[in-house]
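Ticket #455: bound-state structure for uridine-diphosphate-N-acetylglucosamine.
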Amino acid sequence: MKHDNLAVIVLAAGQGTRMKSALPKVLHGIAGRPMLAHVLQAAKALDPARIVVVAAPGAEPVLRLSAECGAEAVVQQRQLGTGHAVLQGEAALAGFAGTLLVLFGDTPLLTPQTLLRLVDCAQTDAGIAALGFRARDPKGYGRMITERGTLLRIVEDKDAGDAERKIDLCFAGMLAAPAPGIFSLLHKIGNQNVQSEFYLTDLIEIARRHDLLVGVVEGAEAEMLGVNSRAQLAQAEATFQSRRRAELMDSGVAFTAPETVFISADTVIEPEASIGPYVVFGPGVTVKTGATILPFCHIEGATIAQGCSVGPFARLRPGAALDSNVHVGNFVEIKNARLENGVKANHLTYIGDARVGEGSNIGAGTITCNYDGAGKYFTDIGARVFIGSDSTLVAPVKIGDGAYVAAGSTIDGNVEPDALALGRARQVNKAGYAPKLKERALARKAAKEAQKGKS
Ligand code: UD1
Ligand code: CA
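RESOLUTION: The complex was predicted; output attached.
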């Protein structure tokens, strides 16, 4: 639904020192997609009038990602705290009179449903609504100090006393408040605290002093995880994975051992597809209904149509396109190649930069030699072709419809439709020669041992 009276600010300028990484924290991935993109996706689901990302100076990838996600960006020259960061959006949002939703770029698991509840609370009461959750381990989070259900203030972990540290109601980092009034209150925040930062969380106390209503919306801990460290990143990843797997199962996808399957944020798996244990889906994969992925496959940038069977132990790389009922078996690698309906490549094969026409069979050990150390070349295999085992197809090369390539061939010239191609040395049989060979070998061995005995 369109929210013309809603603007979102996403804070993404923090250094993320606790990650110990050169990559800005908000660009670390969950399911292969930067945390910031997850947050922007949740924000976009609300269809707000504006989305403004607060970025650090020189964070080009953050600016690029923001633009790709349809958000504007402003730069926070110095990282003086979350309160200061929100203020960087003030000029960009001059003239905006509606609800401002503040999100942190390091809480990638939040859902649009929860954000809507937060916005609704702020709009119904025309005050500030802050999102909280009950944390099993509240360490590191701001604690929400309440009295008879009203929020008095938020105390940062580092500034909290022992009694306050015991409180398990934590601030998730999201709040909704009426603009432009909220910006003038943010200007009143000081930095007299342990970190000498301008804390967004101080807004609560200031708002109360100005008689603005302050409400708490509680959400599930699983959605609120703030990622400050590598361990928390891995925790967020695990939560995301189990959430996506549950959604896919609800939609009709079969998993034998869901906990062993890794899904990317953009993985599409249609109902009635079946996924075996230990399968990894990298970015850009679509699996259509009725397809079966057997155990231990690694799949990225690939489309797998109805009725296909892939694996076990298959690797599909970017540009692999399997049309209906294709069979790809163990130790088969496919890259930038289309396998048309009913193609079979069941064992130990590399197909790269190629087309394989309908109904063709690729024998075990077949290799498309697509690279000469400098350039990549294309192999075009027609329909109903039979490629015998252990053949090497030296690209560029074209094999016509209905052709037959004998096992063990090296094919570096085009093959006409319906032709038989033999590209191997002729076999020679020498009658009665085997015992003679064996006799000679045994004699050599005996001579060697006699020599050893003397010395
Ligand atoms: C913050 C909250 C804490 C809350 C927790 C939830 C404050 C003071 N503390 O703590 O109450 O429980 O999140 O996860 O708000 N950022 C900027 N510019 C800055 C500082 C931070 O853009 O100058 C961004 C960061 O990139 C990050 C977000 O703001 O996305 C939160 O900053 P972070 O330093 O991670 O705050 P926490 O210590 O986790
Ligand atoms: Ca954080």
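RESOLUTION NOTES: The chain has two domains: 3-224, 230-421.
TICKET STATUS: resolved
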